[in-house]
Amino acid sequence: MTKVYNIAIDGPAGAGKSTIARAAASKLNFVYVDTGAMYRAMALHFLRKGISPQDEAAISEAVKTADVTLAYENGVQQVILNGENVSGLIRSEEVGAMASATSVHLPVREKLVELQKGLAARENVIMDGRDIGTCVLPDADLKIYLTASSRVRAERRYLELKEKGQDCSLEEIEKDIIKRDHQDMNREHSPLKQAEDAVLLDSSEMSAREVIERILMLFEERKLEERS
């Protein structure tokens, strides 16, 4: 039976996890699983129903009517919510904030983690999120904790939004990032933290290419260790 390889990338909002994981997966010919996109799709479902992120009872009920799946078109991940491709609708600040606020609720996590574990059991995957190495894939072959200072993360997001023609405030973006860090690190279920056996990569002064090359090198080292 062919061995299935899993790489877990965790870290705070805006650290570049999705960009790095997507590029590394492409180079390794692995399936890229953007778990954050799955939580954002669920958050969009709650927003459409007008549910408060604090209303745990309503969220628990709404989870039952949300079917979040992944599809791939030309190697690009598409996020499907109840049969609708919502990939282009889930990247707004409103959806991101809702995803961070509602991911603290256990029913949300249980529903999505089941899907994530199933994917990783069948395919070579690179999966990124907040609790991949600690909870979703505790036996991953390589775990990375990718971070950067809140200011650097805010500047990257600011430039990204400006390029899209959106009016935004750097100070407000950084304030939101710091707030989301606090929420993610202090939630009751599966808080964001570095797994004990994860490699810490601070990308504050690294280019995306440097981070990707480092991850690929670490993965090759792990495979060599396994064979020896």
UniProtKB/TrEMBL annotation:
Keyword ATP-binding (UniProt): yes
The record's GO molecular-function terms, alphabetically, read:
ATP binding; CMP kinase activity; dCMP kinase activity
Q: Which sites bind ATP?
A: 11-19
The record ties this protein, via InterPro entries, to: Cytidylate_kin (IPR003136), Cytidylate_kinase_dom (IPR011994), P-loop_NTPase (IPR027417)
Q: Tell me the ranges covered by the Cytidylate kinase domain, including all copies.
A: 7-220
Q: Which GO terms describe its biological process?
A: nucleobase-containing small molecule interconversion; pyrimidine nucleotide metabolic process
Q: What is this protein called?
A: Cytidylate kinase
**Gene giving rise to this polypeptide:** cmk
Mind telling me which HAMAP family this protein's record contains? Cytidyl_kinase_type1 (MF_00238)
Q: Does the keyword Kinase apply?
A: yes
